[in-house]
Each structure stands twice: as structure tokens, then as C-alpha cells.
Amino acid sequence: QVQLVESGGGSAQAGGSLRLSCVASGSTFRIVTMGWYRQTPGKPRELVAAFTIGDTTNYADSVKGRFTISRDNAKSKVYLQMNNLKPEDTAVYYCHAEVPSGWGLNPPLVDSWGQGTQVTVSS
């Protein structure tokens, strides 16, 4: 299991920028995927950007070209640089990681979530 703590949310004007940070603790060496999701009231949580299996990056179409995910060399911190923000980016942003549920060959992955950080973009 890993514990995730986000920071960096807040308010911005449309066209502005914010940078989110997430710090993982615990069994960080076992992290398989790590990234960011967001959620608005009444809607399911959606992927924003993530480092996936094989260390490839995956972005939602709505944020491509505006958001950039990065991480530190130890792969225990992940960042989300959000540029050219739009009002529709307003949401609670969650840091997410997957770690194996056990040892052995291909154990199922389990989810870990941060507490969430609010991002509000005004027009």
C-alpha cells in the first residue's frame, strides 16, 4: 500500500496555470502506475494524465497540449502542470497509484487515492 498526498490546487483565471504535486509514501518501490484523475459533482471520476505500465504517458483528449505530467527520478512524486486552464477544468483532482496486491506472478493491482485537491477556473 502507498499513501498519497496532493497539494497545489486553488483558483485561477481562464488561460492561467496551476501546478499540482503528489507525494507518495510507503511501498513506493512497488508503484506500477501513477497519475491524476478529476471529478465533478454527479459525474464519474475521469483520467486526466498518468504514467502507465511501461512508463508511457496517457492523457485525456481534453487536456492534451495543455497539461503535462512529470515525476521525480525516484518515481515517488508526480506533478501535473496545467496551462491554458479552462472553466471546464474545474474539478477535484485526485492523485492515483496502483500497486500489486501481493507477491508472485502478476498479482492483481490495487488502487490508492489521495484526498483530492480542488481546482477552480473562472472565466
Helix count?
Answer: 0
Oligomer, anyone?
A: single chain
Main sheet: strands, sense, barrel: 7 strands, mixed
- Radius of gyration equals 14 Å
Helix amount: under 10%
User: What's the β-strand tally?
Assistant: 11
SS class: mainly beta
* Amount of beta strand: over 45%
Mean pLDDT: 95
- pLDDT below 50 for ≥5 consecutive residues: which ranges? none
H/E element string? EEEEEEEEEEE
Q: Span between N and C termini?
A: 39 Å
Describe the structure.
The mean pLDDT is 95. Strand 4 and strand 5 form a beta hairpin. The strands form two sheets. Strands 2, 4, 5, 6, 9, 10 and 11 form a seven-stranded mixed β-sheet that branches. Strands 1-3-8-7 form a four-stranded antiparallel β-sheet, with no helix packed on it. With 123 residues, the protein is mainly β. It has strands spanning 2-7, 10-13, 18-26, 33-39, 46-51, 57-59, 67-71, 77-82, 91-100, 109-113, 117-122. It starts with a strand and ends with a strand. The protein is built from no helices and eleven strands.
Would you summarize the structure shown here?
With 123 residues, the protein is an all-beta fold.
Jot down its keywords.
123 residues, four-stranded antiparallel beta sheet, mainly beta, elongated, seven-stranded mixed beta sheet
